[in-house]
Write a structure and sequence with these properties.
Blueprint: E1 3-5, H1 30-36, E2 43-49, E3 57-58, E4 61-62, H2 63-75, E5 85-92, E6 95-96, E7 101-105, H3 123-132, H4 142-154, E8 169-171, E9 176-178, E10 190-191, E11 194-207, E12 254-256, E13 261-263, E14 281-282, E15 301-314, E16 319-320, E17 331-337, H5 347-353, H6 355-358, H7 377-382, H8 386-395, E18 408-415, H9 421-433, E19 438-441, H10 444-459, E20 469-472, E21 480-490, E22 498-508, E23 514-521, E24 533-534, H11 559-562, H12 566-576, E25 606-610, E26 616-622, E27 628-632, E28 639-644, H13 652-658, E29 673-677, E30 683-688, E31 695-700, E32 708-714, E33 731-737, E34 740-748, E35 773-777, E36 783-788, E37 796-797, E38 809-811, E39 821-825, E40 830-835, E41 845-851, E42 868-871, E43 877-882, E44 897-902, E45 924-925, E46 938-942, E47 954-956, E48 959-969, E49 978-989, E50 1008-1010, E51 1022-1026, E52 1036-1037, E53 1064-1069, E54 1072-1078
Parallel strand pairs: 2-5, 2-17, 17-18, 18-19, 24-28, 29-52, 36-37, 45-46
Antiparallel strand pairs: 1-19, 3-4, 5-6, 5-7, 8-9, 10-16, 11-15, 12-14, 12-15, 13-15, 20-21, 21-22, 22-23, 25-26, 26-27, 27-28, 29-30, 30-31, 31-32, 33-34, 34-35, 35-36, 38-39, 39-40, 40-41, 42-43, 43-44, 44-46, 47-48, 48-49, 49-50, 51-53, 53-54
Helix pairs in contact: 2-3, 2-10, 4-8, 8-9
Length: 1089
């Protein structure tokens, strides 16, 4: 696909994931379950172009064939859409067709909709069959189609004026609807009746083509059989119901012929048409009676035929049955076309319907098209009022009888429209006004991906919490390449969640707007039955040794280690290797691959560029099924090199295999990774478990074909007894151990799950674990130094009383590659400063720098993410941090903040720390003013009710960027409860918090913007560099003096930028651009990225 263009209008899709009963989640995934518990499946109506241009060929297939094949791929049962209602209609010829199949649960039995369809036929298959019966012909009545779709959702009158025709009837022999009018609605789509009259007529036909040509065989389709004998041998698909049609059965078009015939004397051949039956027969069974040679020199043939014709008009009560049956239900139109509208007979009806938008019934007052230039006459004529129509659908209540406001979003797909920018702009406008998204698709794969992406978006699949991993330009290490890698997942009410990695290409459209084009997903490549999957059984550090293989042949994989009985051992191992032993895709096979990857819920993939010849890029991806995947992404298609599951996570496989909805979410390797590439050519990977457990693991991945186990830190034991859930990403740096410069990892003491307790919205309380900061040897995992809550169990008594799940921020002020200082927040709303002794780490000390928890329920703030630290232009050391309750994102009692303040002791360790910590009252409140004017050592911003900062912030070139999440609740007795989310991105001046840009395109400066590309909790902003700006790379190379950063970057004092105009950095959150800086050569903060 060419890319999707996210509109600046707020995306008002309510993602509904199904009416379920799930365990209470005291975790950030409650944002999915709060919605799911009070919602129903979304409605999706496919509105598909089948005009004559769809017969254009792309390579060996017509566009129509590509569309059919793509829908078949999207609708196949193996996709297993759990909560989705779908319907379908097409448009071509002189008038759009009606609803070919009403919006229905995709997994339900179509027999319940139409009794002629055999029982146990799923709706998805029926819609697939319907699409396969479409043929391309005629014009493009796009406006009529959208009007009929709007009427259907509204539940209004079935449009007629003599064009309805007898509906199709289900033909069991072909598994499709046959025999009626292409314009007729499926009777299941409306209530009431359509009046009908059966009439027998005799008509005379004369066939005398000017250019006779060889006769082709009769078709059993709707087309006319030949030019020479017109409308006799084929089953007609009739256009005007008051002209002629089939008999009342809809399946037998019977004809009586000939009454008489006149054959010119020069007509060659004998016994012409002697094989015609003299009694009525099915049109499909009559075979053409003349040979091809007989068609070369005749004058004419005339015959009379007797046929039964079926005339219809609307009954007095024929009205659509609206598919909008529940409040909070989301509704969507997916409009696909390969061109521009060329016909429309419903202009006046549309103009009347959109009166709430235009203010009148006059189509001349539809002026949205005036905002575009270079439009064709077709669009200006037949596209008029269509932007207003989709805007009406997206903004006005479409089901007034239900509580709340029900709306319909419109997604548009331009199929092979690269050479028609006017049509593209028109479809973008429809998506914009319809509060959906526009997508380009040029190839069959594009079209499949676009359909799936839209469905995933409206059903809530493929959500992302994390910022993407950006690859470095192989020809310029100071620039970002055009690719990024996003981790996505599909929420579920069961323990096992599916996930994926999406390779996305960044680019620009013709207007210079950024585009993100999904090129390939990784889970679909896991099809090799010979996958290399390892664990660690404790006997050999070489993970490729047979003793570590996750294989049925490995006797080291005992039933005790796997927590299963002997009968289930082999099937569990085969399933864990990806074998579909439970036939989860319902294809009848249990020896094929599942094409499944666990969910990378909170993780960002790590990219390592190996300098072997040729160069090799490997992407490391941890998931909650416990597997750490290594993918070779050097080529166009990712290839898994190996996967590793720690032995402590093997017992989880049993619960994942059972996947019962009575169990809670299973977590495995859910933490972020740190990569260290040492001077001696070694490459190490470090990872925590987050909610998966209390351990840290280190792997030697110097040769990705031969990974080795380096070490394991086990929380809750010995030196790490205080270590809680390992949320804190280890930060790589250098410290002095005695007189030896040592590569070390620094991390927080972890998360105390007591913080999940709902009562934690009460005033601050003391935690039981995680109250520590650890420094360990990066090569051995041995503890070097620790700070905690007493001097007997820790090397330094910092006075900690709350857990530290946050990453730590390390800085090197003098550029000597030794860590000078640590800043970190805790779950009690405090900020701690630790000064690391440069002569001997054992002499390090620290103190409480700031406390932003005022001891009240509303002031019980928590810091889950590290502060950003930067020298400003006055050489002050500024610290920026936001608060937010990550475990309870829908909680609204706490009044959260974003703080920026100065460390008064910028360059040196104070001889005596200040007697009191910095508090909120010491800072300036800029919430209601544009800029800080008072002489304060910093500022803070009050966030809206329930709004939280749930990701790391970034400081760059005097600017600060961060994202926030705010739950939105309806008032009153709404069953919707959580009606949506407001994800935002902020761009502010570091010095005083003033707004810097017009973020919403309203000709004014804004502090924040709503993120249209994010539906739930946004990840951290990220920076894309072009040309020069230093992005710090994606792995940490020693270079003799490199330190800090989980994905690389130095710890030297950051520079203030250059004067070059050729280099620039673009700032993003999700896929929304939030700013740009030019003339950059370095960064302005110590950022772990």
């Amino acid at each position: 696909m060419k890319g999707n263009h996210h509109r600046h209008a707020a995306l008002s899709i309510l993602l509904c994931l199904g009416m379920i009963s799930a365990p209470i989640q005291a975790e950030d995934i409650e944002v999915f379950f709060t919605k799911k518990a009070n919602s129903v499946a979304p409605n999706v109506l496919f509105v598909l172009d089948s005009s004559g241009s769809m017969e254009s060929k792309e390579n060996n297939n017509t566009r129509m064939e590509i569309l059919k094949n793509s829908l078949h791929e999207v609708l196949k049962p193996q996709e297993k859409y759990k909560k989705l209602n779908v319907g379908i209609m097409n448009f071509n010829g002189n008038r759009s067709g009606g609803i070919d199949f009403p919006i229905t649960d995709i997994n339900s039995d179509a027999h319940d909709v139409d009794v002629d369809i055999p029982a146990n036929t799923d709706v998805g298959s029926v819609i697939d069959h319907i699409s396969q019966s479409y043929s391309a012909s005629g014009e493009t009545p796009m406006g009529d189609a959208l009007y009929f779709a709007s009427s259907y959702f509204l539940g209004t009158h079935v449009f007629n004026t003599g064009w309805r025709g007898k509906p199709n009837a289900w033909d069991t022999s072909s598994n499709s609807y046959r025999g009626g009018s292409q314009y007729a609605d499926n009777p299941a789509a409306y209530t009431g009746s359509i009046d009908s009259t059966t009439v027998a007529e005799i008509r005379t036909r004369a066939c005398s083509p000017s250019n006779p040509r060889p006769i082709r065989h009769c078709s059993s389709e709707y087309d006319n059989c030949t030019t020479e004998i017109h409308n006799i041998s084929a089953r007609p698909k009739l256009y005007r119901i008051n002209t002629y049609s089939c008999d009342s059965s809809g399946l037998e078009c019977k004809w009586r012929y000939p009454r008489y015939k006149n054959i010119d004397a020069d007509y060659p051949g004998d016994a012409s048409c002697s094989n015609r039956p003299s009694t009525p027969q099915d049109g499909d069974t009559w075979v053409q009676c003349r040979a091809a040679r007989e068609a070369s020199s005749y004058t004419y043939e005339r015959c009379e035929e007797e046929y039964t014709h079926y005339e219809t008009t609307d009954g007095p009560t024929a009205t659509y049955k609206s598919p909008i049956t529940h409040q909070c239900q989301s509704n969507h139109v997916i409009l696909l076309t390969d061109g521009e509208p060329t016909r429309r007979d419903t202009l006046y009806h549309i103009a009347s319907r959109v009166r709430p938008i235009t203010g009148s019934d006059r189509y001349q007052d539809c002026k949205a098209l005036n905002t575009l230039s270079n439009l064709s006459n077709n669009i200006l004529t037949y596209g008029r009022c269509l932007p207003e129509l989709v805007e009406y659908m997206a903004t006005m209540d479409q089901a007034p009888d239900l509580e709340e406001k029900q709306i319909i979003s419109t997604y548009t797909i331009g199929f092979q429209l690269a050479n028609n920018p006017g049509a593209q702009d028109f479809l973008k406008l429809l998506a914009d006004k319809g509060q959906g998204n526009y997508f380009d698709a040029d190839s069959p794969d594009d079209l499949v991906n676009v359909f799936k992406r839209i469905i995933n978006e409206v059903t809530g699949n493929n959500v992302s919490f994390s910022a993407p991993s950006l690859s470095v330009d192989q020809n310029n290490s100071l620039a970002t390449s055009k690719y990024l890698y996003r981790s996505v997942f599909t929420p579920s009410d069961k323990p096992a969640w599916s996930g994926d990695i999406v390779k996305t290409r960044m680019g620009q459209d013709t207007d210079g707007n950024p585009t993100f084009t999904e090129e390939i997903t990784f889970a679909s490549t896991l099809v090799d039955s010979q996958r290399k999957i390892y664990t660690y059984t404790g006997t050999n550090d070489d993970l490729t040794d047979a003793s570590n293989a996750l294989a049925t042949s490995n006797d080291k994989l005992t039933t005790k280690l796997l927590a299963v009985n002997t009968d289930n051992r082999d099937s569990l191992i085969q399933w864990a290797r990806g074998l579909d032993v439970k036939d989860e895709n319902n294809d009848g096979y249990t020896t094929d691959q599942r094409e499944h990857m666990g969910d990378p819920l909170h993780t960002t993939p790590a990219l390592v560029n190996y300098t072997t010849s040729p160069r090799r890029q490997v992407l490391y991806v941890p998931t909650n099924d416990g597997l750490l995947h290594a993918f070779d992404i050097s080529g166009d298609t990712p290839a898994e090199i190996f996967a590793f599951i720690p032995p402590e996570l093997l017992p989880n496989l049993k619960k994942l295999y059972a996947n019962s909805n009575t169990d809670t979410k299973v977590y495995g390797l859910d933490g972020n990774m740190t990569i260290w590439r040492s001077n001696d050519g070694k490459t190490y990977l470090y990872i925590g478990m987050r909610r998966g457990g209390n351990n840290y693991y280190a792997l030697d991945i110097s040769d990705p074909e031969k990974p080795r186990m380096l070490w394991t830190i086990k929380g809750g034991a010995e030196d790490f007894a205080e270590l809680g859930q390992t949320w804190s990403t280890p930060q790589l740096t250098n410290v002095m151990v005695g007189s030896i410069k040592t590569k070390a990892l620094i991390f927080g003491g972890g998360y105390d799950t007591d913080q999940d307790d709902k009562t934690k919205t009460s005033p601050r309380t003391t935690d039981d674990t995680g109250r520590a900061i650890f420094i360990v040897n990066a090569e051995t995992g041995e503890k070097i130094w620790s700070a905690g809550y007493n001097s007997s169990d820790f090397d330094y008594d910092l006075g900690l009383s709350n857990s530290i799940p946050s990453d730590v921020r390390i800085i090197d002020l003098d550029g000597n590659s030794l860590a000078d200082r640590i800043y970190v927040g805790d779950m009690g709303g405090r900020i701690w400063r630790i000064d690391l002794d440069q002569d001997n780490i054992s002499d390090s000390s620290g103190y409480l720098l700031a406390d932003f928890n005022d001891g009240t329920e509303t002031g019980n703030r928590r810091f889950y993410y590290p502060p950003s630290v930067a020298l400003d232009r006055q050489h002050r050391l500024m610290i920026a941090i936001g608060s937010g309750y990550r475990a309870k994102p829908t909680e609204t009692m706490t009044e959260d903040r974003f703080y920026v303040f100065e460390d008064p002791n910028t360059l040196y360790k104070p001889a005596t720390p200040a007697s009191s910590a910095i508090i909120e009252d010491d800072l300036g409140d800029i919430t209601d003013i544009l800029t800080l004017t008072s002489n304060k050592p910093g500022w803070y911003l009050r966030l809206d009710k329930g709004e939280k900062v749930l990701a790391e912030n970034i400081i760059f070139n005097g600017k600060i960027m961060f994202t926030s999440y705010q739950p939105q609740f309806e008032t009153g007795n709404s069953i919707c409860n959580l009606s949506g989310n407001t994800p935002r991105a902020y761009l502010l001046a570091l010095a005083d918090g003033r707004p810097l840009a017009d973020l919403d395109n309203t000709a004014g400066l804004d502090r924040n913007m709503t993120l249209n590309s994010v539906e739930f909790i946004p990840g951290s902003p990220y920076i894309v560099f072009s040309g020069g700006g230093n992005n710090g790379g994606n792995s940490n190379n020693d270079g003799g003096d490199n330190g800090g950063g989980n994905n690389g970057g130095d710890n030297t004092p950051p520079s203030s930028g250059s004067d070059s105009d050729s280099d620039f950095a673009e700032f993003f959150a999700g896929e929304d651009p939030i700013g740009r800086d030019s003339g950059l050569s370095g960064r302005l903060s110590w950022q772990n990225r």
